[in-house]
Automatic annotation (TrEMBL), chain A:
This is ABC transporter substrate-binding protein. CDD domains: PBP2_NikA_DppA_OppA_like. The lineage of its organism: Bacteria, Pseudomonadati, Pseudomonadota, Alphaproteobacteria, Rhodobacterales. GO terms for molecular function: peptide transmembrane transporter activity. It comes from Cereibacter changlensis JA139. Residues 1-25 form the signal peptide. Pfam families: SBP_bac_5 (PF00496). One of its GO terms (cellular component) is ATP-binding cassette (ABC) transporter complex.
TrEMBL record, chain B:
The lineage of its organism: Bacteria, Pseudomonadati, Pseudomonadota, Alphaproteobacteria, Rhodobacterales. GO terms for cellular component: plasma membrane. This is ABC transporter permease. The chain crosses the membrane at residues 101-123, 135-162, 174-193, 228-248, 282-304. One of its GO terms (biological process) is transmembrane transport.
Length: 502, 311
């Protein structure tokens, strides 16, 4: 007799069978927002590339899980000389995924490559001017003059250690099938669709990765990532839409998490233009914005108000609080500056960034209360970037993220003028801050250097060349049974720590 | 006929030269510089300049244009700044999915549109006609992103009949996976075809030669299949031609929601990152596709209607 099965029962049976299979193979499936552009660490700066590279390659040292310190990577120990000019690294017995050992030669080759002309990160490594290979497992790097961030920069993905012989032999083609000493090996890359990774059998951290394989599925649409998780097609969904977090968490079999990465959102104020040349006006704008409301309304609670344009990271002053929401005081300051009747200004915003767009509209309403009328102009991201860079703007919604765990990179970018971007195109300038910046880069890492950062951030806070908005959280959602997943403050994630329990 | 096709192909040359020139110049006007896009917040002016030199963006415009022409002629269409791959390789990786959606959605559209167009034409002005028309008007008006999510929530997540997106290996799996995205694209094509085919059928049915055919004793069915339908298909062919040209590069929304790596999303991603060679190369590639599709459409006209001559 043939049992009559309903469609639903049949499907259920299939689903059960498929879950069973997945458990046996222990493949971790992750829905990720963007496809890597390239797996060459010195050529990229997009998240998709960085996250994938960090699963395949290793660095000498790496940020720890808290993001506040460094922990051993391929180097099991290191010393920095008193004058900061000599860095000595002892390598552990690690192997690349093809079984060849990681040697000091490879280290020298990789760092020199990261400092080369072809590198997008050259400035981070050029201060290292000399290499001395003591033996296969020991290398000394020397600097011509003190540059404290140099050490920290070695923890960046761009300083990933590559097998010299293979990169030299294969050139660009190496990165199509890269060999690294990281936890996973690239098995297949179906561009725009998925990246298949396998456990690296030679990985130096014993017992890791816990899973046998991992698949990074490229799903651009945030809602589609969540749907994939709900359908059981993936185990982890990165960056679900923030407004769905609560509902997701309430669902059976799914839990969400969030972390605040090194990111700060703000509105750039062009201080070469009136009325933004007046510090009182800039402070008034900061006082007129209800940041708590922005966090609730724009980020759906996933984030916290910002006190400055610096991400909250190493040496951050815990006592520095955001500008209070005080429209009355804002009006007073505006009146003092001669703008009792308010003024009109144009605010440019990236039309492709939903959060920034919503923030712009909220700002329009908030600033209206103190008589400031904003005209919001939506620009395509690249155009906005060029517009602010050329100084053809009054106000612009933007943000910054830190690539390293050392605050040097971002303070140089958002606070120092003249520098790369002249305080991120605000053209604001503080001589004291510039002085501290120069000193900090030569000072030995420690509490004294920390105080310099705190003072710089305080000056930035008071000078207010930006309207400081918030630090948005990075969220994720996982299926029950997925243990050990988290997004680190550096925005990447360690799949080698993740296990699937049923 | 073959001579006519060759002549048409020859006429492509000036068109394509025009397109290369236009796509090249328009990109020069577009604000945004790949170096500063790539290096983001960390680059100094010197570093940006070094990067531009590395990518050949510092060369005089006419030199860059000649390189671009050379790349088009050699068939690589240039090399992506960020992917570091020849553009033809990037296209080849994604073209199968795009072509699959083109073919699949067209079949779906015809399967849906033909019977309803015939039904509506046969019942002109009656309830069935009005009802069908309303439904198809809604289909034209519905935004594709909405339809995508409704189908995903209903058929994929709800009923579990389809995966929620992505592509797989092998023909059968991809037929299954690409069904929903093809359905979304196919439904709006179907709506367009249904409306125009219905009108064409009604028109043809009133033609004198149909009366003649009836008068010489052909049965309704034969009259319809041999005379009415073929003579009404011209408009359908042109709609399909136009739609195919559009689908090749224009289904970004559907591609993104269903995570199907098609050519549309490749173009959009290139625009966002200012990967100039990819934008230009793809523009020329799309132009070639459009011209070819138009040519094929014209050939189909000639096949469907002996009065049409390829000139």
């Amino acid at each position: 007799m043939i049992p009559r099965m309903t469609m639903k029962a049949l499907l259920l049976a299939t689903a059960v069978a498929m879950t069973g299979l997945a458990a046996q193979a222990e493949t971790l499936r992750v829905a990720m927002s963007s496809d890597p552009l390239s797996l060459d660490p010195i050529a990229t700066s997009d998240n998709g590339s960085i996250w994938t590279q960090l699963l395949i390659f290793d660095t000498l040292i790496r940020p720890d899980r808290t993001g506040e310190g460094l922990e051993p990577g391929l180097a099991e120990s290191w010393t920095v000389s008193e004058d900061g000019l000599t860095l000595t690294f002892k390598l552990r017995d690690a192997k690349f995924s093809d079984g060849t050992p990681v040697t000091a030669e490879d280290v020298q080759f990789s760092i020199a490559r990261a400092a080369s002309e072809a590198s997008g990160w050259g400035r981070f490594y050029r201060p290292i001017t000399g290499f001395q290979i003591m033996n296969d497992h020991e290398i000394v790097m020397t600097l011509a003059e003190p540059f404290t961030p140099a050490f920290n920069n070695l923890a960046l993905f761009a300083a990933a250690i590559l097998p010299k012989a293979q990169v030299e032999a294969k050139g660009e083609a190496f990165f199509e099938a890269p060999v690294g000493s990281g936890p996973f090996v690239l098995k297949a890359w179906n561009r725009g669709s998925k990246i298949e990774l396998e456990k690296n059998p030679h990985y130096w951290q014993e017992g890791k990765p816990h899973v046998d394989a991992a698949v990074l599925e490229i799903v651009t649409e945030p809602s589609a990532r969540v749907i994939k998780l709900e359908a059981g097609e993936v185990d982890i969904a990165l960056d679900p839409p923030l407004n769905q977090l609560e509902a997701l968490d309430a669902k059976d079999g799914i839990s969400v998490g969030q972390t605040i990465p090194y990111r700060a959102d703000f509105v750039q104020l062009n201080t070469t233009k009136k009325p933004f040349d007046d510090e009182r006006v800039r402070q008034a704008l900061n006082l007129a914005v209800d940041k708590e409301a922005l966090v609730q309304g724009v980020l759906y609670g996933a984030g916290k108000p910002a006190a400055s344009a610096m991400p909250v990271m190493a040496y951050a002053d815990p006592d520095l609080t955001p500008y209070a929401y005080d429209p009355a005081r804002a009006k007073e300051l505006l009146a003092e500056a001669g703008y009792a009747g308010g003024f009109e200004a144009q605010l440019v915003v990236d039309s492709g960034a939903a959060t920034s767009r919503n923030a712009a509209i909220a700002l329009q309403a908030m600033l209206q209360q103190v008589g400031v009328k904003l005209k919001v102009q939506m620009l395509e991201g690249g155009t906005q970037w060029e517009t602010t860079k050329a100084g053809n703007y009054e106000m612009s919604v933007s943000y910054t993220t830190s690539d390293t765990i050392d605050p040097d990179q971002i303070i140089g970018f958002v606070g120092v003028n003249p520098e790369r971007a002249n305080a991120y195109h605000t053209e604001w300038r503080s001589d004291r801050l510039n002085e501290l910046y120069a000193a900090e880069r030569k000072a030995l890492d420690g509490p004294e250097r920390g105080e310099m950062f705190q003072e710089m951030v305080q000056i930035l806070h008071d000078g207010a060349p930006y309207i400081f908005l918030y630090h948005p959280a990075s969220a994720w959602a996982v299926k029950d049974g997925v243990k050990g997943f988290e997004v680190l403050p550096t925005s990447n994630f360690r799949l080698e720590e993740v296990s699937i329990e049923n | 006929m073959i001579l006519a096709i060759l002549k048409r192909l020859l006429m492509l040359v000036p068109v394509l030269i025009g397109i290369t020139l236009l796509s090249f110049l328009l990109l020069q006007i577009m604000p945004g510089d790949p170096a500063s896009r790539a290096m983001g917040t960390r680059a100094s002016a010197e570093e940006l300049q070094a990067m531009r030199e590395l990518w050949g963006l510092d060369k005089p415009l006419w030199v860059q244009y000649l390189y671009f022409l050379r790349d088009c002629l050699t068939g690589s269409f240039g090399v992506s700044i960020f992917h570091k791959q020849p553009i033809i390789t990037l296209v080849a990786e994604r073209l199968p999915y795009t072509l699959a959606i083109v073919a699949y959605s067209t079949v779906i559209a015809l399967v849906i549109a033909l019977p309803f167009a015939i039904l509506a034409a046969a019942n002109r002005g009656r309830l069935a006609d009005v009802a069908i028309r309303q439904v198809f008007v809604v289909l034209i008006a519905v935004p594709p992103f909405w339809l995508c999510y409704v189908l995903i929530l209903g058929l994929a997540l709800g009923m579990g009949w389809f995966p929620t997106g992505g592509v797989g290996e092998g023909l059968l799996e991809n037929l299954h996976r690409l069904f929903l995205p093809s359905l979304v694209v196919g439904l709006s094509t179907a709506a367009l075809i249904q409306q125009s085919l219905r009108a064409a059928l009604i028109d043809t049915m009133q033609a004198d030669y149909i009366d003649t055919a009836r008068a010489k004793g052909l049965r309704r069915r034969e009259v319809f299949l041999r005379h009415v339908l073929p003579n009404s298909l011209i408009s359908t062919i042109s709609i399909i031609g136009v739609r195919i040209s559009w689908i090749i590069g224009g289904t970004v929304v559907v591609e993104k929601i269903f995570s199907a790596p098609g050519l549309g999303s490749l173009l959009i991603d290139a625009i966002v990152s200012r990967d100039l060679p990819v934008i230009r190369g793809l523009t020329v590639f799309f132009a070639i596709m459009v011209v070819l599709v138009n040519l094929i459409t014209d050939i189909c006209y000639a096949l469907a209607d002996p009065r049409v001559r390829l000139e």
